Amino acid sequence: MKPFIGISGNIISDQGKRFPSYKRAYASNDYVEAVTLAGGVPVIMPIVEDKDLIKQQAERIDGLILSGGQDVDPLLYGEEPSQKLGSISPKRDVYEQHLIQFAIQKKKPILAICRGMQILNVTCGGTLYQDISLIDGASIEHNQRASSNIPTHSVSIKEGTHLYRLYGEQISTNSFHHQAVKKVALGFRVAALSKDGVIEAIEKEGDHFVVGVQWHPEMMAKEHEYMLNLFKLFIEQQKFPV
Q1: Segments forming the whole domain that contains residue 51
Q2: Are 38 and 186 in contact (CB under 8 A)?
Q3: Backbone angles phi and psi of 176, in degrees to 5
Q4: What total of structural domains would you count in the chain?
Q5: I need a surface site. Which of 15, 97, 197, 198 has the fewest CB within 10 A?
């Protein structure tokens, strides 16, 4: 038996002429391929509103990947929207908040990626910078124009973290974000920083594997084994029946 890995889904509106505005549930295929290569069974989890259904989703997976996407609604962490806020999806925010809460209650391992790390932090009581330009000293390009599989800046990793045990002091990552973690949620710690001080990873304190990364390892996993190793580490945390 391989572990079933839930990948939080998104909703896209069809732009074609035949079904204009027709809504489709989806997740980027890079997540599917990364989970498959790492030894898991990928399962895309569509957004639903019924809390009981969300709870059942959380119960039936062995681990959860929170995928990237839209900005998190700042009203969720007590701020009004700034002029630099991008598109939001309140329905997705609510869904993922319930999903995170149930997954943490059930001690399911979580790997949160980009927006996933941000909604994880907000759900657990943290806040965000609505745009990196609002961070004093931020000077690195965090929304690269290079191909998605190319690492473009370095990340320094804190000792005593899952990421440190996997990578050591530093790795190079890709980067596609304009928001960032501001106040880290209670019960979490900073696991990695970029050279200009932007928080690049957080981890839950204690034994429960809950790791958030600001970069997109799924986009690099096929060409860069060290990024695939993050998914393998995540898969190793799963507790599933033999």
Answers
A1: 4-236
A2: no
A3: -145, 70
A4: 1
A5: 15
Contact 199, 214 (CB under 8 A): yes
Active site residue 216: yes
Q: Which of 98, 162, 177, 216 is catalytic?
A: 216
The residues near 189 (Cβ < 8 Å, ≥ 6 apart) are 158, 161, 202, 203, 205
Is 124 known to be catalytic?
Answer: no
Return the closest-CA partner of residue 181 out of 120, 96, 98: 120
CB 173 within 8 A of CB 155: yes
Closest CA to 111 of 39, 6, 29, 191: 6
Q: Which of 98, 177, 218, 224 is catalytic?
A: 218
Establish if 43 belongs to a structural domain.
Answer: yes
User: pLDDT per residue over 9-26, tens digit each?
Assistant: 999 887 777 777 788 899
pLDDT, tens digit (0-9, with 9 covering 90-100), for 61-109: 999 999 999 999 999 999 999 999 999 999 999 999 999 999 999 999 9
Q: Could you give the CA distance from residue 39 to residue 3 in angstroms, rounded to a whole number?
A: 8
Residue 10 lies in a domain: yes
